[in-house]
Amino acid sequence: MKPALRTLLLSSVLAFGLGSASLASAQTTLLNASYDVTRELYKEINPAFASWYKAKTGKDITINQSHGGSSKQALSVAAGLEADVVTMNQSTDIDILVERGKLVAADWRKRFPHDATPYTTYSVFLVHKGNPKKIKDWSDLAQPGLSVIVPNPKTSGNGRYTYLAAWGSVIAKGGSEADARNFVTKLFRNVPVLDGGGRGATTTFTQRELGDVLVTFENEAAQIARELGAGQFDVVYPSITIDASPPVAVVETVVAKRGTATEAKAYLDFLYTDEGQKIIAKHWFRPRSEALLKANADRFPPVKAFKVEELLGSWSEVQKKHFADGGIYDQIVVNR
Amino acid sequence: MSAASFLNPTRQTRVLPGFGLSLGYTLVYLSLIVLIPLAAVFLKTASLGWAEFWAVVTSPRVVASYKLSFGASLLAAAINAVFGLMLAWALVRYTFPGKKLIDALVDLPFALPTAVAGIALTALYAGNGWIGSKLAPLGIKVAFTPLGVLVALVFIGVPFVVRTVQPILEDLETELEEAAASLGAHRWQTFTKVILPILLPALLTGFALAFARAVGEYGSVIFIAGNIPMVSEITPLMIITKLEQYDYTGATAIAVVMLVISFALLLLINLLQAWSAKRTGRNR
């Protein structure tokens, strides 16, 4: 076969996404299994990384992305989806890969800076322009008659963070567990729809015009307020909220098999470079770089936030106590 | 076919050869595609103890979801049986402009990705949607209520009744109705005593298919349901919820209950159908 023809054939096969292990020698590919809301972010990160990597090593690299609900993605990887790296929205979704057949190193949090979270985001409120219902803080969400849109904590990391933020807002101010439960019960009485994921909840709030307030991540809220629905919505920062840093990890078993360990590490390292952090900030995620954070102070006002592990216990305890079947969340919504 | 020829199939001459091969292929194919996966569901559930299994499948939220899933599916299939029959009747007995187009439209719910249907229906029936905004002043809320679930299930079930009844209606000779009329039957009597009994087996088949489809439906319902615990959560959502918590066995336990109930209901409908076919003297 003539070389030109062969290249053409190969590239067309690659373009259709069929090129995998057998063609790995022709061009290195990485698969990034990520969650729903990062689709746009990685669409911009990937080509930037490819040219950065080319400049650094002279090698070509292609990144394929796979998106879906965070837990669903983790399950797919556990079931054999050959993802070189996982970029999830919750650390439990990476911990499950440690538990299921040691796909990820047990000390994955220590392998990259900031506990392997290249950026952070917070649960905030999105309200209608001018904040007609005067919603300032978590306690306002429990007032009778208010309609609050949150994603389903049973099927969405975003929803779990919202629930924990509300719970923690009481604990952080010195309230008891009973106070927290009482407050969260009242809050969930005000929830008319439980969408499967963050994007569904956004649609319900912005397109179906249901609800007085949407609780979602800052990156989603800021993007809607300033870009998608410019002039229709305001972002409200509560007095304290939750730090929802999305973690990343290399899938050790897959990179060992495919021989892509170096590339996978370089890809995640790139997220921490100035260039990577700039793209991250552009998509309204809070960069880890102090300089960039300062330069974008108007986009990222300072927020008081707590980490789940610091205030509420380890993720596995939290998961068991609140979200397991028959846990506190179930008790609240069944008897609301 | 007489008993003797059944016992000795090689004696009878057939148009196409290869009975042994076809039967073998049928059994292997059905086993691989249907029986083995279903058996795996049961096997997976077996790792739960009986007490645990019972606790999972009878938790109040799950029971509420059975009521909604099976209740709304039965109701949707019933609505489709009535209006699907009307649709089929109109398509077979009348000529009107755009008939071919409407005939093609009937099949659309088959082909459409269900998520698209769900989003479209939700947009229409939400409080600010075209239809929703007209219903809201009357105090009728469709989207994000069990009524929304019903609407989605009616939508995806439409083609089943139409497509099973249509060919029978086409075969139905108008002479039968004329004969009934000439013997002094009213139109209503002709319909209930002559037409309906002939259509009943096909109608029941369509009903059963629409019902079965509705019970397993996820994509279109999930958007319009609102997913409020104890109110508008469907059983497939409970299964997905378990999977999201990495609880495979819990998910399959609920799946087993759905399978058993669905199978029992379909068996019942099949028996009804056989009975009505026998009563009306028509062989299926």
From TrEMBL, chain A:
GO terms for biological process: sulfate transmembrane transport. Its main location: periplasm. The keyword Signal applies. It holds the Pfam family SBP_bac_11. Keywords: Periplasm, Signal, Transport. InterPro entries: Thiosulph/SO4-bd (IPR005669). Residues 1-26 form the signal peptide. The keyword Phosphoprotein does not apply. GO terms for cellular component: periplasmic space. It is found in: Periplasm. GO terms for molecular function: molecular carrier activity. NCBIfam families: 3a0106s03 (TIGR00971), PRK10752.1 (NF008022), PRK10852.1 (NF008106). Belongs to the prokaryotic sulfate-binding protein family. PANTHER family: SULFATE-BINDING PROTEIN (PTHR30368:SF2). This is Sulfate transport system substrate-binding protein.
TrEMBL record, chain B:
Gene3D superfamilies: MetI-like. It comes from the Bacteria. Keywords: Membrane, Sulfate transport, Transmembrane, Transmembrane helix, Transport. The chain crosses the membrane at residues 21-43, 70-92, 104-126, 138-162, 194-212, 218-240, 252-275. InterPro entries: CysT_permease, MetI-like, MetI-like_sf, Sulph_transpt2. Residues 66-269 form the ABC transmembrane type-1 domain. CDD domains: TM_PBP2. It is found in: Cell membrane. It is a multi-pass membrane protein. One of its GO terms (cellular component) is plasma membrane. GO terms for molecular function: ABC-type sulfate transporter activity. The complex is composed of two ATP-binding proteins (CysA), two transmembrane proteins (CysT and CysW) and a solute-binding protein (CysP). Belongs to the binding-protein-dependent transport system permease family. CysTW subfamily. PANTHER family: SULFATE TRANSPORT SYSTEM PERMEASE PROTEIN, SULFATE TRANSPORT SYSTEM PERMEASE PROTEIN CYST. Part of the ABC transporter complex (TC 3.A.1.6.1) involved in sulfate/thiosulfate import. Part of the ABC transporter complex CysAWTP (TC 3.A.1.6.1) involved in sulfate/thiosulfate import. Probably responsible for the translocation of the substrate across the membrane. This is Sulfate transport system permease protein CysT. It comes from Azoarcus sp. (strain BH72).
